[in-house]
């Protein structure tokens, strides 16, 4: 039977900002400005009330991320694997520094992530070891057509006991999130409610970042 008494302090939140930023020309994506604040700070501020401890997975500009996370007591952790092997390396870094039963990973480039992300993912868990968010795919929506609901695999809630499995998978050359999650009991958390339309809109390029600023009203923090 699923444990229905999981509390926010039993979940560590981890903002993934350790990528190359290749589609942004190699800049550090999490430090790019959105509505006057770094992208990663938007993610941290939305995630902080939902979880207990906070982590920032970053492989560059550690001092800048440490300063950014200091008001929220967020610790910076780098990949333990070289050469930016992808989001799973960020998952692994989070698990290596996680001291709670659960880890909730989110990307740094989705500044409108749901304010009830953790609660809705836990409510959708059942007896699964992994919960993956499913949200509207606004990036690939065709003109005149509604967006489709699709997995958002970087938004992932993990039992921390999965660390050895993930380490074996990465060591064997595995890089795809869905290939690893398919090895375990995995649940979906559907974010298809009114108000979720832009929740997973992300900024992979500088143009997408500018576009996102145009459709989202400015709200000073």
Report the CATH architecture.
Alpha-Beta Complex
| Low-confidence parts | none
Instruction: Describe the strand arrangement of the main beta sheet, using strand numbers.
Output: 5-4-1-6-8-7-9
Task: Please summarize the sheet with the most strands.
Answer: 7 strands, mixed
- CATH top level label: Alpha Beta
Q: Count the helices. How many?
A: 7
Give the ordered list of helices and strands. EEEHEHEHEHEEHHEH
CATH T-level fold name:
Spore Coat Polysaccharide Biosynthesis Protein SpsA, Chain A
Characterize the overall form: globular
CATH homologous superfamily (4th level) name: Spore Coat Polysaccharide Biosynthesis Protein SpsA, Chain A
Please state roughly what percent of the residues sit in beta strands, choosing from under 5%, 5-15%, 15-25%, 25-35%, 35-45% or over 45%: 15-25%
| Share of residues in helices | 25-40%
In round numbers, the mean pLDDT is 91
Main structural class:
alpha/beta
Q: Tally of extended strands? A: 9
Radius of gyration: 16 Å
């Amino acid at each position: 039977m699923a444990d229905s008494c999981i509390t926010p302090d039993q979940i560590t939140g981890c903002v993934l900002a350790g990528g190359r930023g290749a589609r942004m020309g190699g800049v550090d994506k999490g430090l790019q400005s959105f509505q006057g604040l770094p992208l990663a700070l938007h993610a941290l501020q939305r995630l902080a009330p939902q979880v207990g401890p906070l982590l920032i997975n970053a492989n560059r500009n550690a001092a800048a991320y440490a300063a950014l996370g200091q008001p929220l007591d967020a610790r910076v952790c780098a990949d333990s694997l070289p050469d930016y092997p992808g989001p799973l390396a960020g998952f692994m870094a989070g698990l290596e520094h996680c001291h709670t039963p659960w880890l909730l990973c989110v990307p740094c480039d989705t500044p409108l992530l749901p304010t009830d992300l953790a609660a809705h993912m836990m409510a959708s868990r059942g007896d699964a070891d992994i919960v993956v968010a499913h949200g509207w795919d606004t990036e690939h929506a065709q003109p005149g057509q509604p967006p489709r609901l699709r997995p958002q695999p970087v938004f992932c809630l993990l039992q921390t006991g999965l660390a050895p499995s993930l380490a074996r998978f990465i060591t064997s050359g595995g890089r795809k999130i869905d290939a690893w999650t398919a090895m375990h009991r995995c649940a979906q958390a559907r974010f298809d409610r009114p108000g979720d339309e832009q929740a997973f809109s992300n900024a992979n390029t500088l143009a997408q970042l500018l576009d996102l600023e145009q459709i989202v009203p400015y709200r000073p923090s």
